[in-house]
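Deliverable D4.2, example record:
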Amino acid sequence: MKQLILFAVLLCSFFSIGQVTFSTTKHDFGDLEPYSPRYVDLKLTNVGQKQEWLLTVKKTAEVSYIVSKQIMEVDSSIIIRLHVNPNRKGRFNYTVEVFTSDRAEAVKVKLTGNLSELPQDGANMLTQCPSFSDRPGGRNPNQFDLTVVTIDKETKEPLSKSSVTLIQNGEPIWVKATDKKGKIVKDATLGLSYFYATHDGYFPAELGAYVNFKRNYVVVELEKDNTVLPPDPPIDIAVVDPPEEEVIIEIEEEEEVETHLEEELVIPDDTPIVAEAPPAFNELDPEDFSETHFNPINVVFVLDVSSSMSGADKMELMKYSLYQLTDMLRPQDKIGIVTYSSKTRVLLKTTTGDNKEEIKAIVKKLRPGGYTAGGAGIKSGYKLVNRAKIDGGVNHVIVITDGAFNRSSDDYKKYVRKYKRKGINLSVVGIKNKEKDEVEMKDAAKLGGGNYIPIFKLIDAQHNLKQEIRALTFKHQP
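Output generated by the structure prediction step:
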């Protein structure tokens, strides 16, 4: 009898091990921002000698899933994509039970993490899982086929041969031309994206959007340029009179009078030599940032990453402008980055301009979330600049925001005045800000001895911040 019981236990143990292996049974998502990817792929592999099945998946309402297929042939695998959708901020801990035909008990998969902020509109951007039907093996699980269509804004007709640029995390990903149907189908990675489209005879169009496996169809409308060029003025055809008969008059040349050397003009030694005047700022090439004409700069960017910046267009314009500036920086220049939302963080302690990859890596990771409290960020920015102050250079704080930044910051103006006396000035960059917020931005910049720099389009992001830095550091100020 004891032998029978022992055999039964061993048999149960054998089946509990099972023929289906799991790539993982726990996953920690870490800190999730509103637009972070929220899924994990489980790979189930049949290592046994017979066909097995995925029977069912039991999970909470905050978890959704999709499977590549139900049947597992011998030496083959299937994918289960588990997608978390927490309905409140804070820590989460979910248990998902996966039942397969090779074992009597479910395999329990633990999903943990911390949701830092809910999306601004209260909706989750990734509530559904993507289909696996169009995923070739080995493809990046964050990639999918994105369709972009360009159309005439008025007629809604597709526009072939339009040029479309996809920008993500501040960098151009690809530039493609639309086909005869005005369409582009191209790989893309889920996330905040910015589209820039051009077409002959049309004004350029720009669009920010969050794209993922379900939001994979983007339409860009272009407005026709109906500018009428003035006609060329009529050409006057004048009647030419026949030339009069040519009269030749001969003039005798006088003999050249020989001049002795001592009679020639002598320039006195005390004649002043006029030095060549330095070029004006607008006479230089817009890409010139040479040591000859520009002082070194020590700049700290105070970046608004609150929920109001969650629009794809705002974040991408900010990242793109910072990327353009980073490429221009020289080794003698210094840069630091402070972010503010619900909390203030020093993301990049002062580093030199030749550490471009480090700077860009910080910019790439920027994610929006939380409320706006710019005062604390401004204070941190000033302190960071002051620690790395360049004598004989330009020391500056630049706030980049989409709106008012004075919540919980009644005394930020005191800091602006204090550090202005120390030679550290403040400028404000407005990213697609509202007109009512522009007044406060300009007032803050004026108080700080700097300027207000608007960025509303891609061309602004490409040039405005760079030109502001050039203007601030120009040696030959009038």
